[in-house]
Specification:
- The chain has 198 residues and is mainly α.
- The chain has one domain (24-196).
- It has helices at residues 11-20, 28-39, 48-57, 62-96, 98-121, 126-135, 140-165, 168-196.
- α2 packs parallel to α4 (62-96), α3 packs antiparallel against α4 (62-96) and α4 (62-96) packs across α7.
- The chain starts with 10 loop residues before the first helix and ends with a helix.
- The relative contact order is 0.12.
């Protein structure tokens, strides 16, 4: 679908097309970096939209593009955790109520690292969990580790699949990637849970 054929009201689709337009330009790595940052703390087009076409355009640089997306996303997660969360903390309590905030904090104390990891690896909105983790004051080391592992697996897998199978990668990722990441989450979290039993 070309930009001209996208209805004026379909702002998200127009934003998607605008982001996609960077793929073959020299500025693409810079655009990827900043899109990865932004998407980690506000609703935005995910970096995958740009990462996959960039890897297809220059397959030999797939690993470098993945590192750019990972780095930008982790920086954005830090902004969500420290900056946006601190800005929203008082407002969240006012909107949701003290009890709801206490529930969120309690839940994050029990399973916060798992939530952040799942959001970092799967299509679940990452920004919501980076901010919630900051509001709940999830242990920073645990938060950072979950972000690094989840984002590395997600963007690393996308870049690797694109490098290995080329043009067929986009169709494969569109069709199967979410299922693959969900299965990976289940396997990793199950392994982590079993390790705590011994």
């Amino acid at each position: 679908m070309s930009e001209q054929s996208v209805p004026t009201w379909a702002l998200h689709r127009r934003l998607y097309e605008w982001v996609l337009g960077f793929a073959a330009r020299p500025i693409a790595p810079v655009a990827l970096f900043f899109i990865a940052i932004i998407e980690a703390f506000v609703p935005f087009v995910p970096p995958d939209v740009l990462l996959i076409p960039m890897c297809l355009e220059k397959r030999s640089k797939s690993a470098m593009f993945a590192v750019i997306a990972i780095t930008g996303s982790i920086l954005g997660a830090l902004i969500g955790y420290f900056v946006i969360a601190s800005m929203m903390a008082g407002g969240a309590e006012w909107v949701l109520g003290t009890h709801s905030i206490e529930v969120v904090v309690s839940e994050f104390e029990k399973r916060g690292s798992a939530y952040v990891f799942i959001a970092a690896l799967t299509p679940i909105p990452f920004f919501a969990l980076t901010i919630a983790a900051g509001i709940a004051k999830l242990n920073f080391g645990v938060f950072l580790a979950a972000c690094i592992i989840g984002r590395t697996l997600r963007y690393g897998l996308e870049a690797a699949i694109t490098y290995w199978i080329g043009q067929k990668a986009k169709t494969f990722i569109d069709k199967w990637f979410n299922a693959i990441t969900l299965i990976a989450c289940i396997v990793i979290l199950l392994g982590w849970y079993l390790s705590t039993l011994f």
